[in-house]
Design goal:
It is elongated, with a radius of gyration of 17 Å. By secondary structure, it is mainly α. It has two helices and no strands. It starts with a helix and ends with a helix.
């Protein structure tokens, strides 16, 4: 994996986490009646799934980049 590929994937992962943390903060602080328990529950599940994929992508990039550095150094 190239350095550029790793940067793009890590930027994607970081942006995903940022967006969902901000979104959930806004949803749970909002007193809007249309943001009931079902709305908050669905968005919480979406956030957890998205952040989990982002963390997995970050870890995969780190593992591949580490392996590539070890292979080049050998």
């Amino acid at each position: 994996m190239t350095r550029r590929d790793a940067i793009v994937l890590r930027a994607f992962a970081g942006w995903t986490v940022y967006v969902w943390v901000t979104r959930m903060w806004n949803i749970f602080r909002d007193d809007d009646p249309k943001h009931g328990a079902a709305f908050k529950g669905v968005h919480t599940v979406l956030a957890v799934v998205s952040v989990t994929f982002a963390v997995a992508a970050w870890k995969i990039v780190t593992r591949i980049r580490t392996r590539d550095r070890v292979d080049v150094g050998s």
